């Protein structure tokens, strides 16, 4: 009953989409368990490039059942246009299952996400503006509207009315925005209901039964460890739990059934939006990493902030998620550097830290302590095995492995499906 979790080990965009896709041939179900269309997962198959936001990456593998778990927040309009976009490219989403207990992103969530960010001014989080935070906020406040409500027009109408009774006050009186017409929203969402109905299912039951039958379930995280609402750089985080614990809550698969946790780890570090980032490079070296690594957001198109590899946060990801294997991505991007600094500790107000500081204030003041490793000049994008890598690249990988606290079992040397070196089977 292999249930494998795949989590981002840094601040998202580590290459989770590529890693999930790679495992597509070996798994039966791929489940998104949290987040929403704030995610942007890129998959490159041959000369085709796909950017997925809500659909689990498994949709691209013909024998996989893609599942949107109960922990996800769904913008139904976005989901349907993603399904239609894939259909135009000859990819069917007919097998898609959507948890009846997942929550819906409503128009007021998107309006509130944008306006609250504007009001925060310089203190803004830099959200994707997709309504993620307000949708999860309503879920926790027990004001949310769920996928199953789409099956009952009477209940749906009532819930929209109750929600907008309050949210329109906030939008108009606090933020001076226009109110939203409940009748229009009901009409729009009943339209979505028609198309989504055949996909709605008791996904926890289906997944646990599949595990009983020895099927392989891959739980695909969005975002990353440091964007986790509990374990990330709060408040500069997303509003869900991308960590491996969240995989259980967001899918209805119990912790006792998880067999492996794969951390996706970029060979350097990036982050989008505001918040602390000790190894960030704001000079031309950062620009070089951005250009060479193509570090531009898949969802919002924003420049990603770039910096050197940070072993403290990698080790933190191992601890929080119980990482059993790392998939190191984008090693090829570092080719051509003379020396490559790796952050091995922080200095905060004169004291050395070997772990993430307990408080955000200290983390904000953390200065990286670097060790420099020798670089390599060779292009490694054609490498097929670990032995094909230049000695210094091998040494870089081994050093990262030692510092991160879990074995590196796969290495990405390019965006393509085949540009991966396998050191150990992941499933
Ligand atoms: P995700 O959100 O974790 O799925 O990652 P994104 O798709 O947002 O960003 C990762 C980017 O790196 C995408 O453009 C991928 O195609 C690309 N990528 C993934 N693995 C590798 C790799 O090993 N080498 C290179 N050069 N690019 C990669
Ligand atoms: P994938 O799955 C990188 C960031 C946003 C912002 C913060 C909160 O592609 O790795 P939100 O809209 O979630 O309320 O924004 O989280 N963020 C991501 N950064 N990759 C992502 O997803 C992200 N999803 C959200 O930039 O800083
Ligand atoms: Mg991404």
From TrEMBL:
Signal peptide coordinates: none
Subunit structure, as described in the record: Homodimer.
Active site per the UniProt annotation: 13, 41, 139
Residues binding IMP, per UniProt: 13-16, 38-41, 128, 142, 223, 238, 302
Entry binding sites for GTP: 12-18, 40-42, 304, 330-332, 412-414
PANTHER family: ADENYLOSUCCINATE SYNTHETASE
Location relative to the cell: Cytoplasm
Cofactor or coenzyme needed: Mg(2+)
Cofactor annotation comment: Binds 1 Mg(2+) ion per subunit.
Keyword Lipoprotein: no
Protein name as catalogued: Adenylosuccinate synthetase
Gene3D superfamilies: Adenylosuccinate Synthetase, subunit A, domain 1, Adenylosuccinate Synthetase, subunit A, domain 2, Adenylosuccinate Synthetase, subunit A, domain 3
Domain of life: Bacteria
Molecular-function GO term, any one: adenylosuccinate synthase activity
Purpose: Plays an important role in the de novo pathway of purine nucleotide biosynthesis. Catalyzes the first committed step in the biosynthesis of AMP from IMP.
Keyword Oxidoreductase (UniProt): no
Binding site for substrate: 298-304
EC number: 6.3.4.4
The family this protein is said to belong to: Belongs to the adenylosuccinate synthetase family.
Binding residues annotated for Mg(2+), in chain numbering: 13, 40
Entry-linked CDD domains: AdSS (cd03108)
UniProt xrefs under InterPro entries: Adenylosuccin_syn_GTP-bd, Adenylosuccin_syn_Lys_AS, Adenylosuccinate_synth_dom1, Adenylosuccinate_synth_dom2, Adenylosuccinate_synth_dom3, Adenylosuccinate_synthetase, P-loop_NTPase
Keyword line: Cytoplasm, GTP-binding, Ligase, Magnesium, Metal-binding, Nucleotide-binding, Purine biosynthesis
Biological pathway: Purine metabolism; AMP biosynthesis via de novo pathway; AMP from IMP: step 1/2
Pfam families reported for this sequence: Adenylsucc_synt (PF00709)
The reaction(s) this protein catalyses: IMP + L-aspartate + GTP = N(6)-(1,2-dicarboxyethyl)-AMP + GDP + phosphate + 2 H(+)
